[in-house]
Amino acid sequence: MEVYNGPHLIIKNEREYSRIISTWKSSPTNDVAYRKELLKHLDIVEEIKPAQVIWILEKLTFSPCAVTKKWVDEKISKPIFRNGYVERNQDGFDKLAFVVGDDVKAYIEVMDIFKENSSSTFNPKYFSTEIEARNWLNEELITKVYNEEDQNLEINFKGKDNNGKVVFEFKENASKFDCSINLFKTIIEQNDFKKNNIDKYSSLTRREKETLKFIVKGYTNVQISNEMSISHNTIRTHRNRIWKKLDIKHFRDCVNFEIFIN
């Protein structure tokens, strides 16, 4: 039964399963519209108190800003989790399912809301189709025999699009869907980090870049001095300059620059 049909969001209530399904029928164009629809979702969840929730993201292309993602975590996810409506499956996942849309990057933005430092502790599950999400929530186990060819990853070059961008087709076993999405997430994050930090890395001298190569591998100053045949005091100077140029506060920040070295 349809309980809400807003500017961008449709919400249905399936009473027999104690389940609501929130579907983006169109994508919000800004954070204000995005938040308004999610507040409506919250109102309906608090009224119906469903044990299961499915989000259909097929039409969602909007990527919320960092402030809005934090707002969603605090104002939407946390209250729902705190009230304990959504059940937890036997496999340790909450009965909160997301179905991916065409815009994988927008989908990944949603995943970021439920990352490890989230104030809520929801552990949602992600699926490539609504049928798979429903079967999982219904705890229907579908077995399929895959031959060796099915297990192989396929990446095919499909030429260029109308904007001159190269297009690759990525084929992976459906059972590895979460792993594939996480792989894309890592690629996007590394690409963004490169774009945002290329000037900082380029400011390093050749010797400082060489020193950084050993630092990210966990070498001590003495070990690096032995490798580079210079004094450990010089290495300390290089390290201090690297920290300043790259605006590094903690060693874990330094490790991120390994992508430039590789």
Average pLDDT reading: 85
Number of domains: 2
Proportion of residues in β-strands = 15-25%
User: Which architecture of the largest domain does the CATH hierarchy give at level 2?
Assistant: 2-Layer Sandwich
For this structure, what is the CATH homologous superfamily of the largest domain?
Answer: STAS domain
Spatial strand order of the main sheet: 1-2-3-4-5-6
Distance between the termini: 54 Å
Largest sheet: 6 strands, mixed
CATH topology of the largest domain: Transcription Regulator spoIIAA
Question: Which consecutive residue ranges, at least 5 long each, have pLDDT under 50?
Answer: 142-146
The total count of strands amounts to 8
Structural features, described:
The protein is an alpha/beta fold and 262 residues long. It has two domains: 138 residues, Transcription Regulator spoIIAA, CATH 3.30.750.24; 64 residues, Winged helix-like DNA-binding domain superfamily/Winged helix DNA-binding domain (Arc Repressor Mutant, subunit A, Orthogonal Bundle). The protein is built from ten helices and eight strands. A six-stranded mixed beta sheet has the order 1-2-3-4-5-6, with helices on both faces. Strands 7-8 form a two-stranded antiparallel ribbon. The longest helix is centred in the last third of the chain and has 26 residues. The chain is elongated. The N and C termini lie far apart (54 Å). The relative contact order is 0.08.
Q: Helices and strands in order, then pairings?
A:
Blueprint: E1 2-5, E2 9-14, E3 19-24, H1 31-48, E4 52-56, H2 66-83, E5 96-99, H3 104-113, E6 125-127, H4 130-137, E7 154-160, E8 166-171, H5 177-202, H6 206-215, H7 221-228, H8 232-245, H9 251-255, H10 258-261
Parallel strand pairs: 3-4, 4-5, 5-6
Antiparallel strand pairs: 1-2, 2-3, 7-8
Helix pairs in contact: 1-2, 2-3, 6-8, 7-8
